[in-house]
Design brief:
By secondary structure, the chain is an all-alpha fold. Helix content is 76%, strand content 0%. The chain crosses the membrane at residues 16-35, 47-67, 88-113, 146-164, 176-197, 217-238, 259-279, 299-327, 348-368, 388-410, 431-453.
Length: 460
C-alpha cells in the first residue's frame, strides 16, 4: 500500500512551477501588514538592507535544507524525518503541528480581506473609513464573520481539490503575476498623492541611527515567517520536485520573489500611510490589522473618484496574497494526512476540510461568543494565542531541531549530496557552517526575543 501511495504522489510540471508555488506560499499577509510596519519603525532603508542580507544568507540556507529534505525523501514533514529513523519522527510531528494551528486562523483573516474586497464595491469607501467601527462590527458579528471565513475557505479548498498541477499551479500562474502587477500599479498611483514622495524617501533612505539589536531581531523574525520556514510547507513542496531541477537556483529565486513583493508592499503602504499620518513614527505605531483595515481605508477615501477602484484593487491584491499562502498551508495539511494515513488524496482533503472549518469556527468565536477567553491577558483573543504558539514558539523550536538534526545527526553531506544531484553546490562549506553553527544561534535569539516580548520583558 505504501508503495502504491508513493507512486501516486503528485509532482510539479517543472522548476518554475515549483518556484512560483513556493514564492506564492512565501508571499502572504505578513508581507502586506508586518513588513511595512517594521520598515517604518526601524529606519526604512536600514531595515531593508538588513532584511536583504538575512534573506540571502540565513533564509535561503534553511529554504535549501527543507526543500532538499523533501525531495530526497519524497515525503511530507513527518515521513521525511521518519525516513532517517522512527525516533526522529517527533520533529516532523512538531513541524506538522504548525500548519494545523495556523491554517484555521489564517483563513479567518482571509475572510476579513475577502469581506473588504467586496465591501469596496457594495458599501463604498466612505463606509469603511470610519475609524475602525466597521471593522470591529464585522469581526465581532455572530454570523457575517463566519460566512466570509467560509467563503475564503471554499475558494482554497476548491483550488487544492483540483490537485497540484490542475489547481495549485494554475492558480499561482494567474494570481502571482496579477498580484505583482497590481502592487506596482497601486504603488505608482499612490506616489502621485501629496506627501507620498516624502513617505517613499523615508522608506528608502537608510537611517543608521535606528540600527539596533531590536531591528535585527525584527528582520530575522519577519524573514523567518515570511519564507514559510519550519512549518512543513517547503518540505512538502520539495517532495513534489523533479530530481533534474536545480535546488540552489530555485531557493535563491524564491527569496528574491518574497523580497521583491515585500519591498513593493512597503513602498505602497508606507507611502500611503505617510499621506494620512504625516510621519514615520506615526506609521510605525500602527501594526497588523489596524494598519490594513482601519488606517488604509482612511487614505483611500481621500482619493476621490479613484477611491473605490484603488481600495478594491488593493484588497484584491491582499486577497491574492492571502489565498496563495492559504493554498500552500492546506496543501501541506493534505499531504501530511495523505502520507500519514496512506489514504486517497480525496479522503485526506475531506479530513482537512472538516478540521479547518471546525477549528476556524472555534477560533473565530474568540471575537464574539467566546470573547471572554483572553489567554494572553486583557484584550487578547484565541487567535492571538494560536498565532503566538505557532509563530513565536513552535516554529523556532522546529527550526532549531531541524538544524541540529541535519547539522549534527544525519550530517550536512546528506543534504549536500541531494542538492548536487541537480546542480553544482560550490557554497556547500559556507552552507554547512550556517546550518551547524550560525542558524541555531539565530533561531534561539528569535525564540527568546519573541517569548520575552510577549510577556513584557523585551520591546519589539
Amino acid at each position: 500500500m505504501a508503495g502504491e501511495i508513493k507512486k501516486q504522489r503528485a509532482s510539479w510540471s517543472g522548476k518554475w512551477a515549483f518556484i512560483l508555488a513556493a514564492a506564492a506560499s512565501a508571499v502572504g499577509l505578513g508581507n502586506m501588514w508586518r513588513f511595512p510596519y517594521l520598515a517604518a519603525k526601524y529606519g526604512g532603508g536600514t531595515f531593508l538592507l538588513t532584511y536583504v542580507v538575512l534573506v540571502f544568507t540565513f533564509g535561503v540556507s534553511l529554504l535549501l535544507l527543507e526543500t532538499a529534505l523533501g525531495r530526497k525523501t519524497g515525503q511530507s514533514a513527518i515521513g521525511a524525518f521518519k525516513a532517517f529513523g522512527k525516533k526522529y519522527a517527533f520533529i516532523g510531528i512538531l513541524a506538522s503541528a504548525v500548519p494545523f494551528i495556523i491554517t484555521p486562523y489564517y483563513c479567518i483573516i482571509g475572510g476579513w480581506v475577502t469581506k473588504y474586497t467586496a465591501a469596496y464595491l457594495v458599501n463604498g469607501p466612505e463606509a469603511l473609513a470610519d475609524g475602525g467601527d466597521f471593522f470591529t462590527g464585522f469581526i465581532t458579528s455572530n454570523a457575517e464573520s463566519y460566512i466570509w471565513m467560509l467563503v475564503f475557505m471554499a475558494i482554497v479548498f476548491v483550488i487544492v481539490g483540483l490537485g497540484v498541477k490542475g489547481g495549485i499551479e494554475k492558480a499561482n500562474l494567474f494570481m502571482m503575476p496579477a498580484l505583482i502587477i497590481m502592487a506596482v500599479a497601486i504603488a505608482i498611483y499612490t506616489l502621485t498623492m501629496p506627501g507620498a514622495v516624502e513617505g517613499a524617501l523615508y522608506y528608502l533612505t537608510p537611517d543608521f541611527s535606528k540600527f539596533s539589536p531590536e531591528l535585527v531581531i525584527g528582520a530575522l523574525g519577519q524573514m523567518f515567517y515570511s519564507l514559510s520556514l519550519a512549518m512543513g510547507i517547503m518540505i512538502t513542496y520539495g517532495s513534489y520536485m523533479r530530481k533534474q531541477d536545480s535546488l540552489t537556483s530555485s531557493v535563491v529565486r524564491i527569496g528574491g520573489f518574497d523580497l521583491g513583493v515585500s519591498f513593493i508592499a512597503g513602498l505602497l503602504i508606507v507611502s500611503a500611510a505617510f499621506v494620512a499620518m504625516g510621519s514615520g513614527d506615526a506609521v510605525a505605531a500602527k501594526a497588523g490589522p489596524s494598519l490594513m483595515f482601519v488606517t488604509l481605508p482612511t487614505v483611500f477615501v481621500d482619493m476621490g473618484g479613484m477611491a473605490t477602484i484603488i481600495g478594491f484593487l488593493f484588497f484584491l491584491l491582499v486577497l491574492f496574497a492571502a489565498l496563495t499562502s492559504a493554498i500552500s498551508l492546506v496543501e501541506t495539511l493534505v499531504s501530511i494526512v495523505h502520507d500519514g494515513l496512506q489514504c486517497t488524496r480525496a479522503k485526506a482533503l475531506g479530513i482537512v476540510i472538516a478540521f479547518v472549518v471546525i477549528a476556524g469556527a472555534i477560533i473565530n468565536a474568540g471575537y464574539n461568543g467566546l470573547s471572554f477567553i483572553e489567554p494572553l491577558g486583557a484584550g487578547s483573543s484565541i487567535l492571538d494565542f494560536a498565532d503566538f504558539i505557532s509563530n513565536s514558539v513552535l516554529m523556532p523550536i522546529v527550526a532549531l531541531l531541524t538544524c541540529v538534526f541535519v547539522g549534527w545527526i544525519v550530517k550536512p553531506k546528506t543534504i549536500i549530496d541531494e542538492v548536487r544531484v541537480s546542480a553544482p553546490f560550490k557554497a556547500a562549506p559556507a552552507w554547512t557552517i550556517m546550518i551547524k553553527y550560525i542558524a541555531p544561534v539565530l533561531v534561539i535569539i528569535i525564540l527568546v526575543a519573541y517569548v520575552a516580548a510577549q510577556f513584557g520583558f523585551f520591546s519589539m
